[in-house]
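Hi R.,

Here's the chain you asked about this morning:
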Amino acid sequence: MNIYQTAPADYPELIELWEASVRATHHFLKEEDIGLYRQRILEEYFDAVKLYCTKDNGVIAGFLGIGDGMIQMLFIHPEARGKGVGKRLLEYAMNEHGVKKVEVNEQNEQALGFYQYMGFTVTARAETDGLGKPYPILLMELQ
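And the predicted structure, written out as tokens:
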């Protein structure tokens, strides 16, 4: 599983993967919020981080965004979940970029459990996300 830095030409495929992943794991989000985040990702978030992805049979299976010394986003296509893609991307971030922090939606129990399994613990909590929406964000650090 090769991991490489993405380019803007990958953005259409990345945003489709993002939405499929969010719909499979972020059941707490309202439909209008998904649309808002989708627009913000394309306009701001992708360009604010270094994006890395991995492909499976020529299709992007997962991607992560690193910024400010932490994982800002990690999304896996629903069909690639449970196949080690997330673990491989997380280990890449830790081993190749020295990342030891991640932010995760508190209500995304699957992601929270994954990061805890990988050795991260909660060190801080914000009541709202970066847009002021009522989706608490947890800062987790590798111990």
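Helices lie at 11-25, 31-48, 85-97, 109-117.

Let me know if you need anything else.
M.
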